[in-house]
Amino acid sequence: MRKSAKLLSMALAASMVLSLAACSGGASESSAAASEEATTAAEAAGGAEEGSGSEASGETASGETYTVGICQLVQHDALDAATQGFKDALVEELGGAVTFDEQNAQGDSNTCSTIINSFVSADVDLILANATPALQAAQAGTNEIPVLGTSVTEYGVALGIDNFSGTVGGNISGTSDLAPLDEQAAMLHELFPDAKKVGLLYCSAEANSQYQVDTVKAALEELGYTCEYYAFSDSNDLTTIVTKAADESDVIYVPTDNTAAANAELVNNVCQPAKVPVVAGEEGICRGCGVATLSISYYDLGVGTGKMAAKILTGEADISQMPIEYAPQFTKKYNKSLCDALGITVPEDYVAIEE
């Protein structure tokens, strides 16, 4: 965890070896042999320490090294990009002094708890919780190790904090992927002004998804749309629910939802043949099944989280005083191939998602 303490222990051990050699007769040859043996042992131990971990290791100018545990809920474009941005930023800030223990829960919140508990047992220096279930597991697992969330939409909802002020306090802070939901509703209206019914497709197990569809529903109803919820519990009933939504809706809205993101191809396999366009909450989902999105860069979000982590690890900042940070900009993007297939023309200020 911190190499300076280990080097001190090795230096003391070397000193003891030299003292014993001197007491045994003071022969210069014995002393030299003992000194060489102690130096070799110290170098070997130091080399073993530097060679451990899944990433390049080294130390800061102060001799500190750090282990960071990363718990990512599931593999999909958005979360992958946030994790990569986080790692890149920390390596840039701390060089080889940081080692990552990166684990993926494969979409299972119970596995998130198991991963977090393993980090606590290993006494890592900081935990990155990528997505809401990972953050909730970290909140339950430790109140001492610093925890940074990322790809979390609303921290008050995720952590059960009433009248959330923007700072969690304690050992938790992080970054939010919340896009301006009223602007997402306005974008849907810009693209589909003649639509009547909007289906709100989301996973009922994700609290932040519920928050998003509730907010978007209110905004869309003010614009004159009729909205209907289509909630699925997990990937097992997703096809059935998507089929019902496509049959009953003119347009479908999918929020920033991890289960939907991990199964975007399945959503597209239903909606594209039915010629029902999907407006997505983020770029990864849009790439898989949507026609357009108002989205953030998850890589940049991860970079921001990594910079926060560097300040915490080096003692430059107190996590209990760090407010949640938000993406600095949002971009209107569209899925060109899907828009072409459905005959949808987007305004000139939309940026095509790279394929």
Report on this structure.
The protein is of the alpha/beta class and 355 residues long. It has three domains: 3-41, no CATH class; 66-177 and 298-323, Rossmann fold (3-Layer(aba) Sandwich); 181-295 and 331-352, Response regulator (Rossmann fold). Helix content is 49%, strand content 18%. The protein has helices at residues 3-23, 28-51, 77-94, 109-122, 132-141, 155-159, 181-191, 207-222, 238-248, 258-262, 264-271, 283-289, 298-313, 336-342; strands spanning 66-72, 98-104, 126-130, 147-152, 172-176, 197-203, 226-232, 251-254, 278-280, 292-295, 325-326, 331-334, 351-352. It has a seven-stranded mixed β-sheet, sandwiched between helices. Helix 1 (3-23) packs antiparallel against helix 2 (28-51), helix 4 (109-122) crosses helix 5 and helix 11 (264-271) packs across helix 12 (283-289). The chain is elongated and about 60 Å long. The two termini are 41 Å apart.
Features:
single chain, 355 residues, alpha/beta, Rossmann fold, 3 domains, seven-stranded mixed sheet, six-stranded parallel sheet, 13 strands, 49% helix, 18% strand, elongated
Summarize the structure in short:
The protein contains 14 helices and 13 strands. By secondary structure, the chain is of the alpha/beta class.
List the helices and strands and how they pair.
Layout (H helix, E strand, L loop, with lengths): L2 H21 L4 H24 L14 E7 L4 H18 L3 E7 L4 H14 L3 E5 L1 H10 L5 E6 L2 H5 L12 E5 L4 H11 L5 E7 L3 H16 L3 E7 L5 H11 L2 E4 L3 H5 L1 H8 L6 E3 L2 H7 L2 E4 L2 H16 L11 E2 L4 E4 L1 H7 L8 E2 L3
Parallel strand pairs: 1-2, 1-3, 3-4, 4-5, 5-11, 6-7, 6-8, 8-9, 9-10, 12-13
Antiparallel strand pairs: 10-12
